[in-house]
Amino acid sequence: MKKPKLIEVGVAKIEITPVRPIRLTGYSDRDFPFSGVHHKLWGKALAFGNSKDGYSLLITLDLLGIPGRITEHVRKELAREMNVRPENITICASHTHSGPQIGSIVSHFHKPLSPDELAEVALYSQGLVPKLKEVSLQAIRTIAPARVSWGQGEVGFAVNRREHIKPNGPVDHAMPLLKITDPDGKIRAVLVSYACHAVTLGPLNNVVHGDWVGEAQLQIEQSLPDGAIAMVSVGCGADQNSNPRMNTKNPEMDLENARIQGKSIAGEVSRLIASSELKSLTEAPKGVLSNVDLEFAGMPDPMKLAEDARGSGRTSNYSNLMLGKMARSEMPEKISYPIQVWNFGKDLAMIFLAGEVVVDYSLRLKKQIGKDRVWINAYANDMPCYIPSLRVLKEGGYEAETAMIGYEKPSKFKEDVEEKIINEVNRLLPQAFR
Hints:
19 strands; single chain; nine-stranded mixed beta sheet; 29% helix; four-stranded mixed beta sheet; alpha/beta
């Protein structure tokens, strides 16, 4: 039997656990800095390629999201250091709601951040860029010939959380997996993805924690050879919650439920690795990157904002910030939305979408391209806001409209948002995938 072609791959990880007092993000009613560390948080990097043909880097982070400005800083640093092109660098966040605030949704809290707390957010964010640069360079330094393969399993703990609007709403239970081994078959790294919010822990657990994503990484690594690294990204899970989750009567159960959910991911990884279902990849990934303008449907009434700003709580914080932007004529009418596509030759297209993308996007793209040829990641490269589909926009609710408050956006999107994104993805895809 002919052996699969080798691809040059490196992998590394670096700790990004906060060491100073900082508010955890994702829930609006956490009023104080974290009380302890249950999980260490990590940044991990996969590097493909060589100095002659160029490098591609995929970074995963145990954070709620990655602000676009941080992604741009990392890209500039790596372009200067190793001449890595921006389209070949992607950063995927786990969307854990038990990680530090990094500046994406500072108006999301009922209790506004104090000047000292804002300073802590700034310090943490500033420290992230050099760490992501370092883990990327470490991964490049470990590049060696490897066998790369991929396949898909299935895990069932994600549920559509919009049942009050659409009972039995769509889900995507696929769990794609990328396996990297040395030429003799010893596993060096695995990357998996799942379309589900990392919200098993609720706000009553005010501890640093990777949620089900962190548990999955820990348990996968326990099952792999010493030194192997497990990476987890998140798919189009903006309207998907882990189930069970957020036990308000017994918050300690959240920790156990996250462990059980992580075990289900780790178990499916073990099954796939031991199976004959994985397909070999023979080419290192090459990327393309572009931005598409997504327009907002309207602008808020300044007088209504002023009335709300005189109150208290999360919407009051939002209204204050919006009024300041309107007074300076800085209210955005649109966002510039990044879309990235990596192709591993003709065998696999990996799509990276920014922000909190609802499940309709992955289901539509898989139907169009073929579910055995495409892998869709969300929460990648930027954290602008929720990205609803046309269906979700018409249904209304949190993911369509009210979530925009936390992201300091003026309104919901216009109804062409889905078509603009899908059309741009199609434009970026290689001809073989259209």
